[in-house]
Amino acid sequence: MSRAELKKVVVVEKIIGGHITNEEGAAVLGLSCRQIIRLKKKYLTEGGATALVHGNRGRKPAHALTDETKERVAALYSQHYAGSNNCHFAELLTERNALELSPSSVRRILLDKGMKQAKQRRRKKAHQPRERRSQAGALWQIDATSYAWLEDRAPAFTLHAAIDDATGVVVGAIFRPTECREGYSIVMQQGIQQYGIPLGLYSDRHTIFRSPNEQLTVEQELTGDTKPLSDFGKAMEELYITHIKAMTPQAKGRIERLWGTLQDRLVIELRLLGINTIEAANEVLPALLRKHNRKFAVQPKSGENAYMKLDSSIRLDYVFTTRERRTLGQGNTLSYANKTYTFAKPTSYRLDAKTVVEVRQTLSGEVIVWHDDTAIKLTEIEKPIRKPEQERKKASSAQPRKPAQAHPWKTTVQQNHIKRTTSKSDFQDALYSQHNSFAEALW
After folding, report:
1. Most buried of 3, 231, 276, 399 (most Cβ within 10 A)?
2. How many domains, the chain?
3. 416-429: per-residue pLDDT in tens?
């Protein structure tokens, strides 16, 4: 019996013994007098104190899960859904196995089987939350994270993504081998094409987003630049997007929390789909993002959005490019990446030689000249193939010749040798003798 039931027994026995009245007993137990009278009758007719025990004590509830269901849930977790949290596991059971269970029921089953949640939550340093923007499109947050998205089935690679601050909608995402400008450019193009141009963009201070040289060069000042920008920063300026660079990760906490959610859920989803390569992961990523947005997106405070409409004359592939300045040569030619280019078609623009132009290269590798907000396509000039020069035969070295015994060089060497090894008188005698022999040889 519980303590509450023991208290009922003591009070009812005192009422039956005449020690207290029904009203006093009702006040002690917090019941009505009619309920006290029922308890007295039950005590006297149904066997005393045991009659006051709850009738369902020791019985299995009618809505309780069967042992077979519990065993099935535990087996599914260990075989297919290992690593998922309780909420995600309950969703996957409903979606894939037609098992309607609450996260708390799943948690109790796993704990009874000795299976704890894969990731233990820990208290982190508290930061003042920043209020969401009131309109969709007022601010996007963009970032990238490297993770083992395919676990041990492939090396770790990087997910680039952007999230709307007001709604929590992931507007674009793509997997790339490493963090790169191309990945961020593709994410921005995905979001702009589907939703529109946002008013602002929040990022970290990676050199992809800002120029490592904070001071303008002389060439930049002469061309009219007001501040040094990276290629990505120039694209933001061209689209009139206010680019904010965060000083700490907590400043862009919306997308930092997104990484925790995706690393917890996306890994399981990719495993269940049998994805083993980064190419296959990119193919299924849009469908997984739509599923994520349906569950986690929220309604903005304002019904109106702040997106700017993309002008039909703007080609995003000509905006998100690398940009370098080159000087035109004679015949509208220029050198870029160790190749020579010229205009693909005659143009109405009169560009003189030594004119400084901006050369852009798209993500697909196309090279253009950007002049007066117009793209001028280039074509590569093939360099003539020159025949290799025939190798000339080298002259063989002459055979060494041995000088004659009476050669002047040899006599000079002998004189030097005699001079070093004999005295002055002996040297003179030897010299006279050598001279006489040399004269006889000539005659």
Report:
1. 231
2. 4
3. 665 555 555 555 66
